[in-house]
Amino acid sequence: MAEVSLEVPGDERGTLLSFVEAQRAALREAARGLTAEQASSSPSASALSVGGLLKHVAECELGWLRMAQRRPSERERTREAYQEGFRLAEGESVASVLEFWDGVARETEAFIAAVPSLDDTFPLPPAPWFPENGKVSMRWLLLHLVEEFARHAGHADIVRETLDGTRAMG
User: Fold this and answer.
1) Phi, psi of 137 (to 5 degrees)
2) What is the pTM of this model?
3) CB contact set of 91 (below 8 Å; sequence gap of 6+)
4) Is 72 domain-assigned?
5) Number of structural domains found in the chain
6) Would you say 9 and 134 are in contact if contact means Cβ atoms under 8 Å apart?
7) What is the residue range of 72's domain?
8) By CB neighbour count within 10 A (0-12 exposed, 13-18 middle, 19+ buried), where does 18 fall?
């Protein structure tokens, strides 16, 4: 298992970013050593695969980053195409998804480092699960990424263990 560094700047921003990165690392670890076939397979009762989970969290992070930046996401999916975000498409691989996600992660970290305050807010998109005209803070964004990544790291761990008995999370 890859070792996660917990040397964290003592401020809140650095601490939250380190928790986001720790959950990214757990997801990356679930994919380490898998063949392309294994990464795309769904061996459990759900349709989730490790590769698909990686793609989903990378696109999810990009989507939230773009909302915070008040820019459209270049990977936004329609409701009808939502499930495609959970599958590696033709020409995609774990390596290409991880490369994409690394770029998104760097952009997220630079953006968060540059915002004046974690209390700064941005509007939520219209959706039945968000309050009308809702806003969230940059702090909320980071905590949401921890929540999202941790949930899917658990899924990836179960899928990985089902595939070959390897536990991604210690």
Assistant:
1) -90, 170
2) 0.90
3) none
4) yes
5) 1
6) no
7) 12-164
8) middle
Contact in structure between 108 and 68 (CB atoms under 8 Å):
no
Identity at 37, one-letter amino acid code: E
Return the structure tokens found at 54: 């990686």
CA distance 33 to 138: 34
pLDDT in tens, 82-111: 888 899 999 999 999 999 999 999 999 999
Phi-psi region of 5 (alpha: psi -120 to 50; beta: other; left: phi over 0): beta
Q: For residue 136, what is the domain's CATH number?
A: 1.20.120.450
Q: For 106-146, what is each residue's pLDDT tens digit? A: 999 999 999 999 999 999 988 888 899 999 999 999 999 99
φ and ψ of 42, to 5 deg: -120, 85
Q: Radius of gyration over alpha carbons of the chain, in Å?
A: 16
CA–CA separation, 38 vs 35, rounded Å? 5
Q: Are 156 and 30 a contacting pair, CB within 8 Å?
A: yes
CA 88, chain centre distance (Å) = 15
